[in-house]
Specification:
By secondary structure, the chain is α/β, with parallel strands linked by helices. About 55% of the residues lie in helices and about 10% in strands. It has 2 domains: about 425 residues, no CATH class; about 120 residues, Transcription Regulator spoIIAA (2-Layer Sandwich). α5 packs across α20 and α7 runs antiparallel to α19. It is elongated. The protein starts with a strand and ends with a helix. This is STAS domain-containing protein. It is a multi-pass membrane protein.
């Protein structure tokens, strides 16, 4: 082979069965058109323009033969696809096995590249450019989010069935880790309502299980990120996600009714909870109910304060007093949870000091930071003074068996929540799901060493973070420090916070997570999307959550399979430049085993009805399998048995390889001139080609 290019032999012939004189000439393709392997000795791909009917034969060395019939340029017609990819022979199985070693070495080498390092440790991108404006924005946002996180952490721990301190334990280390590994400035790591409910259903209030669940779910999230499995959330469609979120919101709301009314109720599912509430509703405590409903009304009203604007709409036209009033209203509305906790805590303390307890308090919260220790891998046996076993011993295997499918569900839901925040405030920028998996995975692993339970980014806190003017993930530092200060100095005062106030905070938040607003546009857009959404919603209410979301995903997969099994076929009755009519059938997707019999029946139906040559345009067929090849072979024989012409147009080389592997006898064309000629000749002879 010369240094200037690759020589390819091109031989002209015709389609007629009689031998014809052929002309032979050499075609030199410039080197720039050839892509070579790293060894520069093996031809990888060559692109040849204006290829017609072809037949590729592997030759020795790097020589390839291309057989192209002559093109009659004086014949009027339309040209089809004029690009053709010439590839070398496939590697043998042993060659593929031998290539694993070099592939693995290349991957390991790529990990150490500076580009990958900056991608997987995002702090290296923004920290060198950090300035005073960023610092001020992050400080304000971090403190504002901290005022939201503390009351939410206390409230969410009750959803998880854990003491209030565990919500705070899971709210500061993750913030610090996310600064280093997080790719979205608006994500505030910590407990969320959905993660808390899933933790309760998996752990049933046993803190050792919750901490181990945090460690294992973080480990699974990290592994999913390292193996690039962030695409798994693509299997959870919008309707399924909406149905799941709405059902979870109702379950969370129902779980707080007992604290709102001061009664005792248990249950994992929506039906079990309300059955238990109805059984004990006659024991409703007036003080708790009054406190709870007043707090809900006040919180809903305070939620409207940030929308109130004094003065002109444009901030530049407002006076200093107007700006101060507007900022104050916004701050009061944003910190409404903290204000309610402080006020209700003061009311509770006043009653308690006077010897009265009209409300149920959250009780003692251990003061100080949690001890740093490995997550527990067993649950010890606990016996009371009477010798009664309160909590049975559980080994690591027993704990794993109890956690079950939640080890997969919680990481997926955590990623789903996190990505929702990233997309909501991304301003059109791409979201790296793999990096987010790594970030929340490492955060949860770190949280488990300070006795936290699983957490992720919460959309409500993300909205506060964004509205507060956060500039980088560094705002999480101030949020985490505020939680640490609360643990060090304010835990004695948490004793007086009424449970009804925390229940009101949760109810006032989750009521807006019920996605009723998506039903109307979904109905207008595509009514069938309501089926998996409603099915997920009902299943999550009636069954454990992990089964409910599996029902929705399963229905989605069934819809996808049905869509794949029933492709659309566009039919056109065309006429060649010579006046011969033929039927052009264009399938709109790949030929795979669920759809081929359906396609065969449709093509046969149209062929029998028209009794004219049929051309299958394969432009949109990007893949096929062995079953498809067998059915196409049957289709070809069907047409041959009734002496009807069947031709293929623009067949992809990858699909052709599948057909050739099944020993199919078929004719394929890549321009309309040759197609016209074949139809004209076969029509004249009245025999199949």
């Amino acid at each position: 082979m010369s240094s200037s290019g690759q020589s390819i032999s091109k031989m002209a012939n015709n389609d007629s069965p009689e031998p014809a004189t052929s002309s032979t000439f050499n075609l030199t393709i410039p080197r720039i058109a050839i892509r070579r392997t790293s060894s520069d000795t093996q031809l990888d791909k060559v692109q040849i323009k204006s290829a017609s009917v072809y037949n590729i034969h592997g030759l020795s060395g790097s020589q390839h033969s291309l057989s192209v019939p002559p093109i009659h340029k004086d014949v009027v017609g339309y040209r089809g696809s004029n690009e053709f990819i010439l590839t070398d022979d496939k590697q043998s199985t042993m060659d593929q096995i031998r290539s694993i070693g070099p592939w693995f070495r290349r991957k390991c080498k790529n990990v150490c590249r500076r580009k990958i390092l900056y991608k997987r440790v995002p702090v290296l991108n923004w920290l060198p450019k950090y300035n005073m404006d960023d610092a001020v924005g992050d400080l304000v946002a971090g403190i504002t989010v901290g005022l939201t996180v503390i009351p939410q952490a206390l409230a969410y721990s009750s959803i998880a069935g854990l003491p209030a301190a565990y919500g705070l334990y899971g709210s500061f280390v993750g913030c610090f880790v996310y600064i280093l590994l997080g790719s979205c400035k608006d994500v505030p790591m910590g407990p969320t309502a959905i993660a808390s409910l899933l933790t309760f259903q998996a752990c049933d209030g046993v803190w050792q299980r919750a901490v181990l669940l945090c460690f294992l779910s973080g480990l699974i999230e990290l592994l999913m990120g390292l193996f690039g499995l962030g695409f798994l959330i693509d299997f959870v469609s919008g309707p399924v996600s909406s149905g799941f979120t709405s059902a979870v919101s109702l379950i969370i709301l129902s779980s707080q009714v007992k604290d709102l009314l001061g009664i005792v109720a248990k249950g994992n599912t929506f039906i079990e909870q309300w059955s238990s509430i109805i059984d004990d509703i006659h024991n409703t405590q007036l003080g708790d109910a009054l406190m709870g409903f007043i707090c809900i009304v006040v919180l809903l009203l305070m939620r409207l304060l940030p929308r109130i604007k004094i003065g002109p709409p444009d901030a530049c036209d407002q006076s200093t007093v107007q700006k101060i009033v507007n900022k104050s209203l916004w701050l009061i509305g944003t910190a409404r949870n903290a204000i309610i906790v402080v006020v209700c805590g003061a009311i509770g303390a006043a009653f308690y000091e006077n010897g009265k307890e009209p409300f149920r308090m959250i009780g003692d919260v251990p003061s100080g930071l949690p001890s740093v220790q490995a997550p527990p891998f067993s649950v010890p046996e606990i016996v009371d003074g009477n010798g009664t076993v309160i909590q049975e011993y559980e080994s690591f295997g027993d704990m794993l068996q109890g956690l079950g499918s939640m080890l997969i569900v919680i990481p997926l839901i955590a990623l789903l929540e996190n990505i929702a925040i990233c997309k909501a405030f991304a301003d059109g920028k791409p979201v790296d799901a793999t990096q987010e998996l790594i970030a929340i995975g490492v955060s949860n692993i770190a949280n488990s060493f300070v006795q936290g339970y699983p957490g992720t980014g919460a959309l409500s806190r993300g909205a506060v973070n964004n509205a507060s003017g956060v500039r980088t993930p560094f705002g999480g530092l101030y949020t985490g420090l505020l939680v640490i200060l609360a643990l060090l100095f304010f835990t004695p005062y948490f004793f007086y916070i009424p449970r009804a106030a925390l229940a009101a905070i949760i109810i006032a938040a989750v009521i807006f997570m019920i996605e009723v607003r998506v039903v109307k546009p979904m109905w207008r857009s595509k009514k069938t999307d309501l089926i998996p959404g409603i099915a997920t919603f009902v299943a999550c209410l009636a069954l454990p959550l992990e089964y409910g979301i599996l029902v929705g995903i399963g229905l989605n997969i069934l819809f996808i399979l049905y869509h794949a099994a029933r492709p659309k076929i566009h039919m056109d009755q065309a006429v060649t430049p010579c006046g011969v009519k033929y039927l052009m059938l264009t399938p709109d997707r790949c030929l795979i085993f669920p759809s081929v019999d359906y396609v065969r029946n449709l093509i046969n139906k149209h062929g029998l009805k028209s009794q004219i040559p049929v051309v299958i345009d394969c432009t949109h067929i990007y893949g096929a399998d062995f079953t498809a090849a067998q059915v196409i072979d049957t289709l070809i024989k069907d047409f041959k048995s009734r002496n009807q012409l069947l031709l293929f147009l623009n067949l992809k080389p990858s699909v052709g390889t599948v057909f050739e592997g099944a020993d199919l006898e078929y004719r394929v064309f890549y321009d309309f001139e040759q197609l016209d000629k074949a139809i004209r000749e076969c029509r004249r002879k009245s025999i199949p080609a």
